[in-house]
Amino acid sequence: MVLRWLLALLVVVTLLGLFANEHWMTRRLVLDGRGPDQRLEVVDDSGSGGASHAQLSTAPDGTHTLRCEIKPGFEWPFCDLQIESVGGDLNLTRFSSLRLWVSVAGPQKDGVPAQLRIFLRSFHPDYPGSGGGEDLKPHEVIFAPAGLAMPVELRLSQFMVSSWWAQTHPLPVPLMGPQLDRVRAISFSTGGQVLPGAHVIRLQRAELIGNWVAPETFRLGLVGLWMFSLLGYLVWESWAVRARLRRSMRRSKALEKMALRDPLTQVANREGLSRALELLTRAQGELGFPMSVVFVDADHFKRINDQHGHDVGDQVLALLAQTLRANLPRDDLVARWGGEEFVLVMPQTPAEEAVAVAERLRAVLARTPWPAGLAVTASWGVAEARDEAGLEAAMRDADQAMYRAKHAGRDRVISASA
């Protein structure tokens, strides 16, 4: 379910991001020659040996009109409306297109509509020449605006270095090709091979269009978002799986602990004693021997249940287990064998010492305040195992010794070796 919501959220974010990058993250730079960092220049071929003449006028609405009288007799006649960047070179790599509201008019040759040439003139200190305007690298497009819907949008990738300039300005390989990171001037010029006569270039508006974040960079960011989100989901899922596994293990351990513990007395049951003995012998090996086993059976327990009820009987068993556990060393084991019968396992303890411990515990039971004012005693049987192989026999011998104690009058300790 979480993955579905994550995928749905990523799809929505991706679609909104792509739409926003296309329509809401647009940067614009108006080219009108009137800003503090722009300057309008009118250039014609009169400075290069021609006789053409250009004149500029600007309407109240900001429309620039370049009127050009092309004179014959010069090889490459032209008139040029140029917008210079005086506040520093323009980095056009931050933009993707040039949007124009423009029209041209002039004498036509063979019915071909009048053309407009646009130059993006770049500077670099390593370009050959004296560094004047003619040494700026021109990137040009040429087209006929007549019949085109306005605005016309030209992709900056469509601008190519003028071949005539490249022939007169040989460049090293690293400087070849388009370079739009340091554009110093943008020119709107009459077309090539213009006919003599009156030509008009009318520029209503020009603006550079780009994205604050380049589409390829933005898409790469979206890919990164997808990868980061999926990676985050995998990390979260891994953590969740581990957490579930930890909870499951805790529940398993709790269930296992419950399965190995007597719920009434909170000491080990038979299975718990067997597991504890296995761990004890594995940890201590032969150092745990001699090991004594003591069977303990509450005397006249049936009479307690019959006369005082099972609730009191349960209280007696719980208190008996608690008393045994509280008065034994930590390494000694206490388990409920069944009914009113308990087993004590004492590692590194010979039978004689175990008998002494049992006598001490018997005395403790005599001083213990029991429920319902009862006086509770127990019968004790002690046996010793010399090694692991003799442990099962010691259990049987201690059980039999306990029954001998009962037949001998109860409330006593008998050793199997006696």
Automatic annotation (TrEMBL):
<dbReference type="Pfam" id="PF00990">
    <property type="entry name" value="GGDEF"/>
</dbReference>
<protein>
    <recommendedName>
        <fullName>diguanylate cyclase</fullName>
        <ecNumber>2.7.7.65</ecNumber>
    </recommendedName>
</protein>
<dbReference type="InterPro" id="IPR050469">
    <property type="entry name" value="Diguanylate_Cyclase"/>
</dbReference>
<dbReference type="InterPro" id="IPR029787">
    <property type="entry name" value="Nucleotide_cyclase"/>
</dbReference>
<keyword id="KW-0812">Transmembrane</keyword>
<feature type="transmembrane region" description="Helical">
    <location>
        <begin position="220"/>
        <end position="241"/>
    </location>
</feature>
<dbReference type="InterPro" id="IPR043128">
    <property type="entry name" value="Rev_trsase/Diguanyl_cyclase"/>
</dbReference>
<dbReference type="InterPro" id="IPR008979">
    <property type="entry name" value="Galactose-bd-like_sf"/>
</dbReference>
<dbReference type="InterPro" id="IPR000160">
    <property type="entry name" value="GGDEF_dom"/>
</dbReference>
<feature type="domain" description="GGDEF">
    <location>
        <begin position="289"/>
        <end position="418"/>
    </location>
</feature>
<keyword id="KW-0472">Membrane</keyword>
<keyword id="KW-1133">Transmembrane helix</keyword>
